[in-house]
Design goal:
Order of helices and strands of chain A: EEEEEEEEEEE
Radius of gyration of chain A: 13 Å
Shape of chain A: globular
Helix content of chain B: under 10%
Number of helices of chain A: 0
Structural class of chain A: mainly beta
Distance between the termini of chain A: 36 Å
Structural class of chain B: mainly beta
Order of helices and strands of chain B: EEEEEEEEEEEE
Largest sheet of chain B: 6 strands, mixed
Largest sheet of chain A: 7 strands, mixed
Oligomer: heterodimer
Distance between the termini of chain B: 41 Å
Strand content of chain A: over 45%
Radius of gyration of chain B: 14 Å
Number of strands of chain A: 11
Chain lengths: ~110, ~110
Amino acid sequence: AAGVIQSPRHLIKEKRETATLKCYPIPRHDTVYWYQQGPGQDPQFLISFYEKMQSDKGSIPDRFSAQQFSDYHSELNMSSLELGDSALYFCASSQDYPSTDTQYFGPGTRLTVL
Amino acid sequence: GNSVTQMEGPVTLSEEAFLTINCTYTATGYPSLFWYVQYPGEGLQLLLKATKADDKGSNKGFEATYRKETTSFHLEKGSVQVSDSAVYFCALSDPVRGNEKLTFGTGTRLTIIP
């Protein structure tokens, strides 16, 4: 079965650079979620989109922005990167509005800021 | 707000031992409850879920029962294997549209010794 695809899988950036992470949800899934997992930490919710509109917002820095496109893929844009942004970034997708469904996670993008 | 309190780790058991990982939650509504597993270097995989009180989720020999009266969702397995070594996250989501983000516990690292 198709799963959530994230690219790139690994990314190395310098401080103050920008990064773009991409997420391709499971076909027919209409909702995308982004989470950040620091080393040894639990995943923290950043932001979500339903039908290309932002549906919820968590602890996402103002330096980060995201959007969902007409084909339902999503991109997380990160600017002025800081050392503390080094983490594993997960995308998850789900289906079935109005009732919530299970979120299926991608393999994650490991971002290292030097 | 919603929160999940999970048994502190790490937990080390011998193969074929009985496993319990405690999880309790605080939520304002009627959340759905999940256990996710993260194997080394991999993403989060859904292990099991329960969406209403007294539901029992089960998968791969793991079980958890949604106990509203004790606000708990403890994970159990009767006989663990070396391949069960991973980090286990308890999580909840609020099934209200626009608020389905997952709130995770801190994770429990499980190591099974042959």
